[in-house]
Amino acid sequence: MEPIRVAFLWHQHQPYYKENGEYLLPWVRFHGVKDYWDMVRILDDYPKIKQTFNLAPSLILQIMDYVNNKAEDKILKLTRKKAEDLTEDDKFEILKNFFMANFDRMIKPYPRYLELFNKRGGFSYSNEKFEEVSLNFTQQDWLDLQVWYNLVWVGEYSKYDEPFKKLFEKGKNFTEEEKQILIKGHYEILSRIIPKHIEAQERGQIEVSISPFYHPILPLLCDSSVAKISSPNIKLPTRKFTHPEDADAQIKKAIELYTEIFGENPNGMWPSEGAISEEVISLMVENKIKWTASDEEVLLKSLAIGESDIKDNSRIKIYKPYRFKTPFGEIKIVFRDRILSDLIGFVYSSWGPDDSAHDLVNRILRIRDEIIKNEGEEALRYSLVSIILDGENCWEYYQSDGKDFLRTLYWLISNDERIETIRLNDFLSNTKTNDLKNIYPGSWINANFNIWIGHEEDNRAWDLLKQTRDFLVRESLSGKHSEDKIKKAWEEIYIAEGSDWCWWFGDEHVTAQADEFDLLFRKHLIRVYELLDAEPPVELLHPIKRKFVKFFVVEPKKFIYPIIDGSRTRNFEWEGAGYYDTAQIGTAMHQVSAMVKRIYFGFNEEKFFIRVATSRNLTEKHRIEIHFIEPCETRIEFNHEGFSVKKIGKREKQGIFEIKYAFEEIFEFAISRKTLCASDEISKIKFHIHVYEDHKAIERWPRDESIVVSLKNKTR
Q1: SS3 call for 10
Q2: Backbone φ and ψ of 646, nearest 5°
Q3: What is the pLDDT of residue 617?
């Protein structure tokens, strides 16, 4: 029986957080002890599972710094400090930062940590409440909080070993000595990560690939105007950025570090954000990279297949390896299955681990059947399902940090002769490929570059980068500075070229640490001027990022009176409604294949309305649940056949339940304000929605909180 080959590529990446000798953010350390170690360690238990791990050099560099130089981050310094010595400023930072973890998986399960979270005021805490809240914390509270924030980031493969097991069991009343033991344990786990990858690669179970050094968007470094191919109306920065030599330098630096650590050249390169162009591909080949990868939509556009033209069997094209020829030779390219990748990244975390693992295996087997049906079993020899996603960011949303899911998944695959996992270079070195004549320039997000360029904030960042780079070039040619200073200044430019800064600029993604990312980007540019004894331009001293908002909600502007028919074409009736835009809501991950695009909401004197605009038509497989939290808890489930009331809170008048809905192309809904207890005296309605497909939850919007709609001051 010919198996279908599956390539898992876990992209492990963090931007360069160091500033003035310490790391401003703790994510290298935290994801190191929770994810980077666990993700490779788990494979010891499943020798048949082969995978590819893509390690960004900026991540490797920082892990090595922690291990070799005992580097520290801001959170670690606040943790090390004795509770009795904490200043008011220290306590302010602790209350602000030490609950920055997934509530359901990392705070709620631990009674003492949950107690401290509630003592802070839970989700309602704001910096303005610091003085009031701080007075309620005892010295032991501060010490326990220092321990718990670092303890919950310990991964599944370490938490049951000492010293962590004893700390989890103790739960509270920690000592300063135990805190230092915990910190030492973090460094111990970090010290294992790179050696474990070397060992697993040498025994043939994993392949380690690489990204450009500081994770830049290579096509935009080569020519920023390439963004206009996918987005003709995009507004570009004032200063055109055209520096393929920087892209080449980022690739060469990555290869140099890889060779130093692994003793050989890398075979493959996952380009930052899956972003490729023909110019970038040529640079890779020139640097002897043998394979690369991108997203399925980049392939389909390269093949001139529009999404509206995709038939069921045309998806088979994404399961073929391709070859692209350049003046320097050829390179093999694979394209990720976005659906399977996004299921792991965004959907399965809300399912049971067994259900999600079986679902993924069944989907892979259906792909196998489809290939056999259309092309014959022989075609399986030359077919590959590529599942590519970030290897750290999704797991904190999973039960047991994703290990129960992965254990079941790996066991199922290991015991099914119809599926074989494979390292990418092994497969691509021994299979025939299809010629790809053109490369459509794009990234793994919508086959364009709009996340990183085009928004006012992004463009300002690019202009500042270009201005600083031009200054460095002029100073380099002046002969006034030492070679060492010039080299250090270039390093700052390369760091500032990373994709992560512009990831957080613009409206697409939000983080409570937006200010830190903004500051780090500008600091690296300022450092160029400082190294060369020059005054930095005043614009570098001003923030680029606008004030952080938790999620993107537009309030209703006036009363609305829509017809509830479920039609996509009658959206004019919702003019003046408020909306929640899921496309604008992203964190460290970005869900391209989300079902829900935008949630509209509004009201008039008598009714409250919701419209759920979707990326594809609703079918009999789908159902939608609306959870009203305030003013009267109400939960209603809808599908094509009807609706059912899951919960109705206490209302002034029993028996009143007035709703109308349409579950057609999209979902529209009207409910009487009386049913929701939303009388004239009530000031707000609070709700969120869940979307199900085949009886499984696939989306929740908003992901962590609820939409709050003010009922005040609206007119006809």
Answers
A1: strand
A2: -85, -30
A3: 85
Q: What does the radius of gyration of the chain's CA atoms come to, in whole angstroms? A: 26
**Nearest C-alpha neighbor of 31 from the set 394, 559, 371:** 394
How far is the first Cα of the chain from the last one, in angstroms, to the nearest whole number?
68
Give, to the nearest 10 degrees, the angle between helix 353-375 and helix 403-414: 40
pLDDT band at 648 (very low <50, low <70, confident <90, very high): low
Cβ atoms within 10 A of the Cβ of 711, count?
18
Give residue 555's region: left, alpha or beta (phi > 0; psi -120 to 50).
Answer: beta
Token pair belonging to 518? 């903004």
pLDDT category at 52 given cuts 50, 70, 90 is very high
> Residue 203: which residues within 8 A CB-CB, separation 6 or more?
none
Contact 414, 359 (CB under 8 A): no
The backbone region for 329, taken as left when phi is positive above 0, alpha when psi lies in -120 to 50, beta otherwise, is: left
Please state, in angstroms and rounded to a whole number, the distance separating the CA atoms of residues 667 and 679.
25
Measured CA to CA, the distance from residue 486 to residue 475 in angstroms comes to: 8
Four-point Cα dihedral 75, 498, 33, 206, nearest 10: 180
- Residue 473 clears pLDDT 80, i.e. is over it: yes
* Cα–Cα nearest to 32, from 17, 20, 52: 17
Q: Which of 266, 270, 272 lies closest to 252 in space, CA to CA? A: 266
Query: How do residues 440-466 score in pLDDT, each as one tens digit?
Result: 999 999 999 999 999 999 999 999 999
**630 Rama class: left (phi>0) / alpha (psi -120 to 50) / beta:** beta
What single string gives the DSSP state of each residue in 369-402?
HHHHHHH-GGGGGG-EEEEEEESSTTGGGSGGGG
Cα 683 to the center of its chain, rounded Å: 35
CB atoms within 10 A of CB 618: 23
Give the residue from 592, 30, 704, 667 showing the smallest Cα distance to 350: 704
Q: Average pLDDT of 24-53?
A: 97
Q: Tell me how far apart the alpha carbons of residues 455 and 668 are, in angstroms, rounded to a whole number.
A: 32
| Cβ pair 513, 268 in contact under 8 A | no
pLDDT tens, position by position, 186-195: 999 999 999 9
- Average of pLDDT values for 523-549? 89
**Residue 334 CA: distances (Å) to CA of 314, 363, 470, 484:** 16, 19, 36, 40
Q: Is 241 helix (H, G, I), strand (E, B) or coil?
A: coil
What's at 34, amino acid-wise?
K
CA-based nearest residue to 492, from 467, 458, 523, 516: 523
Distance between CA 346 and CA 398 in Å, rounded? Answer: 10
Q: Residue 311 has what pLDDT?
A: 52
* Percentage above 70 pLDDT, the chain: 93
Fill in the DSSP letter of residue 344.
I
